[in-house]
Design a protein that fits this description.
Oligomer: homodimer
Largest interface: A-B, 65 and 65 residues
Number of strands of chain A: 0
Helix content of chain A: 55-70%
Number of helices of chain A: 9
Strand content of chain A: under 5%
Largest sheet of chain A: none
Number of domains of chain A: 2
CATH class of the largest domain in chain A: Mainly Alpha
CATH architecture of the largest domain in chain A: Orthogonal Bundle
Shape of chain A: flat
Order of helices and strands of chain A: HHHHHHHHH
Chain lengths: ~210, ~210
DNA sequence: ACCTGAACACCGTTCAAGT
DNA sequence: ACCTGAACACCGTTCAAGT
């Protein structure tokens, strides 16, 4: 059906096609049959390269994590780590459904080990004890994952959202939300994200 | 089929049964047909009370959020907010799959408005400007959502996890991860969660 | 070695028919 | 008003059969 495919099938080509398909049509639209069609092949052919749909999803996450690059060494450890989380958040924006997959259904084999190793190295060299480095890692990870998900899925007080019931918000029932309304529209989310990172870094410095 | 049901069907009863079913069997196991069976009724009957499966999922999230209680007023605003996030995290532990649903598929009508209003009130009374209260809200929310998801789904350097490739981790390829290994097993996650909250609060105090 | 057709056991959902 | 049987258009997956 699709013009895409005469090249031979391979795990890699299947995964990359699936990633593009989900970015375009959304995760719910992905089926083995449709992915087959996208590759000019019957659904059953996919099973020669991927054991089942679960493994396909894991593979897509793997593709994404593989594209994540560790920022170059820097004499400013905080900047290096900030940059790593910027890239992580950008990945969420570029591939929202697959990012969600990474969060809700992290693959057994976690391909983020290299990133974690590099992160810890940076923190250890900055003088943090192993235990504190672990806490810092989890705090910054948690914050970034949560912030990105909130952006992607539009929870956490989005401007003008029916999502927060903004339309029906009566000013006397919800005075604090109401006074916030003008601010919601002109917050720079990039800056806010950095601000949040800064809060955690400040806390870390205080305890170091 | 199930002994459960002779009481009349209702939206509420459907949602509560669905929540219990998902807590027990997992989200993937939930189908209209099986949920019907659970209620002693054919699947099609459910459509008299719920427009479709999406609305059913939204309703389940709604049930959960409805059970979340705002902690009592307190002279210590930080403690009050901490307690609210503790409850939120506990909800994630008690209902992991539905919590994931809340994150990946937040319902259009967000029933968290009362919580948000109360949160903002507390922060405003503690002296924060509206804009800063918004940033604080988003930072603490993001952190808690991310931390809870990491726990529930076991990402973020879990102990002994094949998930981080822990088994094959050679000590010279991943020295920092290796030195961390002993610590992974004896970290108190409750304490670590509080520590992370503390980092953000410290940052906020510094900027207030 | 890789692809496929047919089949199986499941889905969500519609709709006319029953009470 | 609420429940249901039958049907439709889809799923993921298996397997014997083809090349």
């Amino acid at each position: 059906m699709a013009i895409t495919g005469r090249r031979p099938l391979s795990r890699r080509r299947i995964l990359e096609t699936a990633v593009r398909f989900v970015d375009r049509e959304g995760l719910d639209a992905l089926s083995m049959r449709k992915l087959g069609g996208e590759l000019g092949v019957e659904a059953m052919s996919l099973y020669n390269h991927v054991p089942n749909k679960g493994a396909l999803l894991d593979g897509m996450v793997e593709v994404l994590l593989g594209e994540l690059e560790v920022p170059p060494e820097s004499d400013n450890w905080e900047d290096r780590i900030r940059e790593a989380y910027r890239r992580f958040r950008r990945m969420a924006h570029d591939h929202p459904d697959i990012f969600s997959l990474l969060i809700t259904r992290p693959p057994e084999a976690m391909y983020g080990v290299w990133l974690a190793e590099e992160f810890l190295k940076t923190l250890r060299e900055a003088g943090f004890e192993p235990r504190m480095a672990l806490h810092a890692f989890r705090a910054l990870n948690s914050y970034t994952v949560g912030y990105a998900m909130a952006e992607i899925r539009n929870f956490a007080l989005e401007p003008g959202g029916s999502r927060m019931g903004a339309q029906q918000l009566s000013e006397d029932e919800f005075p604090r939300l109401s006074e916030l309304k003008p601010h919601l529209e002109d917050v720079d989310r990039d800056a806010e994200f950095e601000f949040g990172l800064g809060l955690i870094f400040a806390g870390l410095r205080e305890r170091a």
